[in-house]
Design a protein that fits this description.
The protein is of the alpha/beta class. 41% of the residues lie in helices and 20% in strands. Helix 1 links the parallel strand 1 and strand 2. The protein starts with 13 loop residues before the first strand and ends with a strand.
Length: 299
Amino acid sequence: MASVQLGARFALRNILYLTDFSEPSEAVLPFATAIAREYGSTVYAFHVMIPQIYTYMTPDLADASLTAQEEAAQAELQRIASQLAGLSHECIVERAVSVWPTLERAIKDYKIDLIVLGTHGRTGAQKLLMGSVAEEVFRQSHVPVLTVGPWARRDMHKSAQFHNVLFAADFSPASVAAAPYAISMAQENQARLLLLHVMKEPEDEKTDKELQDAVSSATVQLHELVPESAEAWCKPETIVLTGNPADKILETARERHADLIVVGLHDHHGHLAAATHLARTTAHKIVANATCPVLTVKG
């Protein structure tokens, strides 16, 4: 496998910070600002206002309600703008009946390189869900998405620094697409880079030598994901484990105190029928349960 080729400096020129003004949205803002400072990015603080109109309202009352909702949203965005002081930024409110079509247009219009959002999470039988908006963004976006979930450690929100970046690779095209992001995030933060591959439990009994050979092969492939130029600033640590990929990635992230997980997300080529099964995939489980931010990159 050829190593990933990086340019002189990895570019994240435009970041879309999607907010509904909730606590999860507040929690992710420091990460949007920290990344923007590192990369010299423009931040677009973006809120999609779903009008709340009730059937008993007269047209005049409906207009007044919409105006009040928009004024409240603008006031919230002004508060966010104060936290973006010193950064190139723009605050935007859009009226719409649903979030994703509006967000999809914004991605194109503003040439967005990264979406940053907080997830609400669910409990009980729905515990792997992230909230309807985050679910749709995760499912649909071809732009990398940084999510901070409900289990993320609150102590990391203040500094928004990445000291240990865990890149989980399965050597698929999605992994190759995600590798430059993991390497660049580690480089910009002068962080330790951990490269992890999780092998499935062998169906047939293998000899110790066969298992050793498999581990050695995976280790070589992990090293090949990192360009030689990266050796000037880091010595990536490789980890090869056997078991359930999502469980092992989450476990390793906790044990190694990862404050960013980067994973490639397999593309379903836009077919929603296939995407509805995403809740059972490795990447989705990681995003919904991680104790640190997760960057997903669609390959």
